[in-house]
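job 3f2a | input accepted
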Amino acid sequence: MRTDTAAARGPAAVRRVLESELAQARERGSAEPHVVDVGGGSGVWAVPFASAGCRVTVVEPNPNALATLRRRAQEEGVSGRITVVADDSDALGKHVGAGSADLVLAHGLLEVVDDPAAVVAALAEAVAPGGAVSVLAANRNAAVLARALAGRLADARRLLLIADGVLPEERETLLRRFDSDALTGLLVAGGLEVGLLQGDGVVADAVVPDGVTATDEDLAEFEAVAGATAPLREIASRLHVLARRPKLS
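job 3f2a | predicted structure (249 res):
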């Protein structure tokens, strides 16, 4: 079974990319980089970034998630650095000024919104020229492989053929899954330039066989290499893309 420890260490490669991006923002003159976390939930990303000196805007409609976010922010002493917007991602432009963000996060968002193309356009509008949009999305190929290995070959075949990569009986949780081409194509169509594509959770979410041991460091190092290797990236649980808004000419 998947453990909390494995889940926590899975996004290490994603975190390193985002920390590097914020370092670049500081080099460009943003002493307190502005991070916009769309669908930011309970503050898994927002609170650590605020603790690291960023100004963070969280756009999230779920009141329970926002209550947890506020509690976490208070416990860490960073409530003053986090602006909470209790609204849907569709309303992003009403609350975040155009070109005001150094980094925009859309993690676990595009697979649940009604109109992903419109959301991507709003993400691109919010980020400053030269800034970045980080997208983390469910991978269709991982879902296909998981079902095939579990002996659910009919379901695996259906997932390969259905346009949105979600079985009808699953639509309560996800509206769609992506493969690499679909995800990067969506971002490019929204006016962004894809700079990085990697996998997140190549093996970290899988069952570890009895008798096999691995340290957190071993797993993190493997995930970092495997997620950047094309054949393995394509079966990771999630796809991570860092896309950039072109600088003004």
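job 3f2a | DSSP finds eleven helices and seven strands in the chain.
job 3f2a | closed
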